Fold:
Amino acid sequence: QQEFKIAPSILAADFARLGEEVDAVLAAGADIVHFDVMDNHYVPNLTVGPMVCKALRNYGIEAPIDVHLMVEPVDDLIGQFADAGASYITFHPEASKHIDRSLQLIKQAGCKSGLVLNPATPIEVVKHVLPQLDMLLLMSVNPGFGGQKFIPYTLDKLREARALIDESGCDIRLEIDGGVTADNIREIAQAGADTFVAGSAIFSKGDYKAAIDAMRAELAQ
Ligand code: DX5
Ligand code: ZN
Structure:
């Protein structure tokens, strides 16, 4: 089992003070910055692009930035996010005409690559490209908005994904995104996740350290 990592989603942060917010969650013990990119096309919401990622790097953020692309098409943004300092770039297979090519573009750009599966997307889509993945992200809500409820059947999917990854012998982080809280994180970890995105469960709390500590305490049990 890989080490557990907590990845606060900036979607729930105060965008007017984004640098300070990201600093604050990292100081509170977060491992990875989860950066949600929405285009009002692949998903019915609009957020931020490479300029804001670059601004975080210029501000001095050194932690890994996990860019979750909810955009269609995908390929044009890969180079821009790599130049903006992205560490991971993940995309939804439905949003790319040529999944293998998009994965290659991410690697060529010097970033870690990943695929994101919506709740109802079957896991089989990743089977042939496992060696090209550094991360597999399972959505436990429908993408587009923070603050939704965790969809329970994704626990079964996590177990399937964990088995697939272990069988492959590939070094792939298994990330879960949507509705993660201190109340369900242990069950989610037991199903096989090792990387946990949490937006509202962290940023809606006044004390980010208390929120992250509560999650880690559950994971330690
Ligand atoms: C949803 C985003 C998530 C979201 C998670 O489309 O991909 O990263 O911000 O937010 P919470 O943790 O509030 O469900
Ligand atoms: Zn996300």
About this structure: The domain at 5-220 is CATH 3.20.20.70 (TIM Barrel). The chain has a mean pLDDT of 98. The radius of gyration is 16 Å. Residues 175 and 195 are 4 Å apart (CA to CA).
